[in-house]
Amino acid sequence: EIQLQESGPGLVKPSQSLSLTCSVTGYTITSGYDWSWIRKFPGNKMEWMGYISYSGSTNYNPSLKSRISITRDTSKNQFFLQLNSVTTEDTATYYCARYLRIRGVMDAWGQGASVTVSS
Amino acid sequence: DVVMTQTPVSLSLAIGQPASISCKSSQSLLGTSGKTFLNWILQRPGQSPKRLIYQVSKLYSEVPDRFSGSGSETEFTLKISRVEAEDLGVYYCWQGTHFPFTFGSGTKLEIK
Hints:
The structure holds two protein chains of two kinds.
Chain A: E1 3-7, E2 11-12, E3 18-25, E4 34-40, E5 46-52, E6 58-60, E7 68-73, E8 78-83, E9 92-100, E10 105-109, E11 113-117
Chain B: E1 4-7, E2 10-13, E3 19-25, E4 38-43, E5 50-54, E6 58-59, E7 67-72, E8 75-80, E9 89-95, E10 102-103, E11 107-111
Parallel strand pairs in B: 2-11
Antiparallel strand pairs in B: 1-3, 3-8, 4-5, 4-9, 5-6, 7-8, 9-10, 9-11
């Protein structure tokens, strides 16, 4: 059974970078799915941030394109989110998820990592 | 971006009552593959989102058959034939046809 687990600092200062890790067990991230980051803001709004494909290519939400980077470490079966120049508006719960392109689904989600941007 | 408009914002229903949630998209979700990538997920309190329905009407194997999805092009509906206690939470539709993927604003289901 696949499991995804987010980890990283829960508090980030404005103007700094937010960095999160998604550790995947039960499935190899190079095996054919893509790997997404999604965030949920206070008040329920959800935003898809981007994904890294099984081959290592990336696709980002244009609203974040200048600030976001998704990378991976295949030896650790992990992928990463970096969001630069954060503001208080980036305060959210961040989820990683497995995405299957041919079905258009995100079928497995992590538990989420709450990140607060505050000085 | 495709705007997903979800109604109602909240529902308060007794166990055994039916539920219906509407999701409308600002453009057709029928893709060039001939498939419509409209999904429904449920986030229970304190939990991560869970998959419910994909491609408008296909239930994941673990989802009870009291759930159903329907619709096409720009108008979609999630129905629960008889609400049970475990169905409480926030339901979201989201589309995977057009980049960037976008979500509805959520419908909170409360149990009376």
